[in-house]
Amino acid sequence: MPGILSPFSLFREASVAPLFVSRVISSTSVGMGHVALAWGVMRMGYGPRELSLVLACNAFPALLILCGGIVGDRFRRHHVLLGAEILACLAWLALGASFSMERAPLPLLCALAGLGGIATAIFLPTIRGVIADLLAGGRRPAGNAMVSQTEAVGHLIGFVSAGAVVTLVGPAWAAGARGTLCGISAVLLGRLVTHRPTHSAAGPVHDLREGWREFASRPWVWIMTLQYTAITTALVCYMKIAGPLYTENGHGGAWAWGVISAAQPLGALAGALIGARWRPAHLMSVTALLPMSVSLPMLLMGGEASWQAIAVATLVPGAAQAVYYVFWTTALQDKIPHPLLVRVNSWNMVTGYVLMPVTVLLAGPLVAAFGSQLIVLAAAAGAIGATALTLLVLWLLPDVRSSCGTREAPAALPMRETEVAAR
After folding, report:
1. What 3-state DSSP class applies to 135?
2. What does pTM read for this prediction?
3. Scanning 95, 148, 257, 325, which has its CA 20 to 30 A from the CA of 264?
4. At a CB cut-off of 8 Å and minimum separation 6, what does 411 contact?
């Protein structure tokens, strides 16, 4: 037990502890916003089509993830994260004010949701790279586990409390809380110290191409990226549209969806610690298999299971995705050159997020036409099929499977507190 809990010793280090506290607070706000945005739109009388439009506007700025990758490699990474949190703070405070209206104009909701999406596009690729600045190589699995762990704690608090807040006092308060918590997170991120990048005379287009060349030269990265895209598409259908509408239509309402959403980070609390210690012999095959677990709650929802059963089943993908995050993020941090890390992360993420607004736009009308259950069954089938195809490719091409290397018992744990990364 002491071994598996040893990543928590990182909280004693002033150089990295503010990041973990920030992740708890910011991730709590994400849980708040996830429930507040869907119910804020629905309680104004808008239907599935309008809901999918607002959510698509929130997702559409994901096209800018590549720009976020460039920014994350050109500037101090904690400054990039701080700026993104400030932008999210302003957007969600404005959304909270909008939800307090009797019926806010749909274009206003779309614009503010889009502003929040821009903040996310800047934040996501950089958060995956900041641990490489703060911790030396051998300690990165523990650092990534703690990022996942603290995010899971925040999501758990956020989803559970959001369901209660939306039910008791309304989505305006939940959206306002999201904005306030992002502001607090920004203050904490300002206490970090990350590398000052070496500025080159090359422009952003050169930076983008350089990141693409590094990404495309590693087959194991782009094969897993294609799988990630399919998994993300399935999750968007389930989490953004079908799930909320299923629970709203006689299966527990906002409170039930908050509990279901909270079950995933609850599972991740254990999964992140497992990922910090587990060293499978076939790293890439195990990593590719883990995301398929997202299909379990989808299959139950498609079978019209109770919301309680769906919540319990969601613990499994919660744990599996936390292990996946540790394995995948550490592999990238160990194998990708530091100056290119955030750009490669952005290429890894962009395909799934580019499809997100299209998926959200299509999911609303499809759910309205065919019902939530049929759509989540189709999403589950897509996740299973993508995983099976990925495993087949890795099996048939062992050189690709082994090209990422294996981390056989890296010196991540136990950790020495003197191993602090150079600034």
Report:
1. strand
2. 0.69
3. 95
4. 138
